[in-house]
């Protein structure tokens, strides 16, 4: 960031200059730091992931997943920056178009989707790569929901909460057809938080929480793989392989870790480069590194919230809060699953886990967050000396 400061003066009126002096640079810096940590973590997990997926002999030079992650970062970072340059109007338009496209893709999954584990159909194969529509839909839905809820601030009689609620119900129905309980819980929780910011009453909030609890109970009773995961988590009996291997990896690392490339427990860890990459960080870099990652995610959420205290636009407030909640809540779920405090959800650690559609979706969502929280105060301050000179 310091190098960039020397490139642009405060009075720079070019597109890049205006972007640099209006963007939330601390927030962008924390996201870039997470991406850097992700490259290191994927490099540590790559040999283990290659061995588990190929079943063949491996070497530490086998960094297939790291090479792929470098490609995703090379694609995702320009996307993030490009989206962050959009004016608010175009960010909202992008969200509306993305929501419509995401809903169409979710509806097409039963017919065009590729079946994964437990019979779940969550991916579409495009050009040899798996694309998960629900990941790309999340940030679009969050901003679209904020746009709908913002109408309530202009006219409290507008049924903004019921309208956005109907959109949520449609998405939840499409997600449960897959089925994908983890994404359903995440999207629903974010919507509840946004609706509460928009004025949802405490009574309705309690009712919605009760409905959510009933929904989870129904999934437990009627969705076999959900039943199995929850039973294993509660009783500790049966095939609890994933949780046991994750805890073994974290324990073997202790406070300071075994050192880069020295971890051995990761080779028996399921999905070490995606769902359980937090355990790889714990084994090779220690619990102190895990704590640093957790604090970094918390700092991102706190940064966004504090920036919104001075925000006058309700649309920006609700949208930015929702996008920050997505990053924070998804990271929280991934980390506590790795610590065996929650049943496995198949959810990635934002910006750190290896991924394609998940990583790109996070870059788009963060670009939207940076776009919506851009402030013109820097340009205003830069123009003040010129105004004073003109006045004299």
| Contiguous helical run count | 15
pLDDT < 50 runs, ≥5 residues: 377-392
Radius of gyration: 22 Å
Helix content: over 70%
Terminal Cα separation, in Å?
36 Å
Largest sheet composition: 3 strands, antiparallel
Structural class: mainly alpha
Descriptors:
single chain; 392 residues; mainly alpha; three-stranded antiparallel β-sheet; globular; disordered C terminus
Any overview of this molecule?
The chain has 392 residues and is mainly α. The protein has one domain (14-375). It is built from 15 helices and 3 strands. The protein has helices at 2-7, 15-22, 25-54, 64-84, 88-112, 133-154, 160-177, 181-197, 202-222, 224-235, 241-253, 277-308, 314-338, 357-372, 377-391; strands at 114-115, 121-126, 129-131. The protein has a 3-stranded antiparallel sheet, with helices on one face. A hairpin with a 5-residue loop joins β1 and β2. The radius of gyration is 22 Å and the shape is globular. It starts with a helix and ends with a helix. It is an enzyme of class 2 (transferase). InterPro entries: FtsW/RodA.
Describe, in short, the structure shown.
The chain has 15 helices and three strands.
Structural topology:
Elements: H1 2-7, H2 15-22, H3 25-54, H4 64-84, H5 88-112, E1 114-115, E2 121-126, E3 129-131, H6 133-154, H7 160-177, H8 181-197, H9 202-222, H10 224-235, H11 241-253, H12 277-308, H13 314-338, H14 357-372, H15 377-391
Antiparallel strand pairs: 1-2, 2-3
